[in-house]
Amino acid sequence: MPAPEPRSRYGNPPFYEELGRRYVVLETAAGYTERGVASWYGKKFHGRRTSSGDTYDMHAMSAAHKTLPLPTWAEVRNLRNGRTVIVRVNDRGPFVENRIIDLSYEAAKRLDIISDGTGLVEVRALSFDRPAGTGPEVVEPVSITAATTATENLAGDAMVPTPPPETASDTPEAPKMYVQVGAFSERTNAAGLHLRLKQTGFDNAIIHQDALESPEFYRVRIGPIEAVDEYDQVVQRLQTYGIADVNMIIE
User: Fold this and answer.
1) Which of 200, 205, 171, 169 is closest to 190 using CA atoms?
2) Which has fewest Cβ within 10 Å: 19, 108, 159, 223?
């Protein structure tokens, strides 16, 4: 069961480098929430030492993360089917582009992402409060409800409302995945990048504007994209055009 734990002796340096990239370990997991792609690791690593010093057990409910403190308890929800698991993050990884968490075989099986190899998930770190005179209590971060948003295409000014992110349910809506290429305070700058993407063959490039955001930002995105491998291909293609600083957006 989730419970407060001190930081492990190993795996928590202020920062570390892997495959030429530097990662800064978070000082605290409090409030951490992120959507992205989960992968999993299994038999090849079973019985090996994790970054925290634990022995990896592919049948335990554990996970690897690049920057969360070790150990951290987290809730992982499959955005496609609504299934949820609680895992103990005790390892580092995955050091693969566009992945935010590496699940144990057992956790991935319960989320039903074994066959696909990856899945779209929401990761929320669990925090622990200790009210005076009581034992530990698990407190999950407050869920933030997104404001009404709108999407705009280059051809006109009509704004098409898009719903806020789905919440866990028995029949969750299919999540939409986008590659965000840039964000601008000036519409003309966003329109310039949007046009460039169109001219290079990205026909599904759009300009996304949050109608209630202040100050206004115009975000240039490509999508929606259904499959993770298709997302990876789009990112690789953007890199050939010198566009490497992108973000994954899941709505």
Assistant:
1) 205
2) 19
Query: How confident is the model over 159-189, as pLDDT tens digits?
Result: 333 333 434 445 567 889 999 999 999 999 9
Which domains are delineated in the chain?
15-139 (2.40.40.10), 149-250 (3.30.70.1070)
Chain segment 22-60, per-residue pLDDT in tens: 999 999 999 999 999 999 999 999 999 999 999 999 999
Q: What is the dihedral of CA 166, 170, 171, 175, to 10 degrees?
A: 40
Give the pTM.
0.79
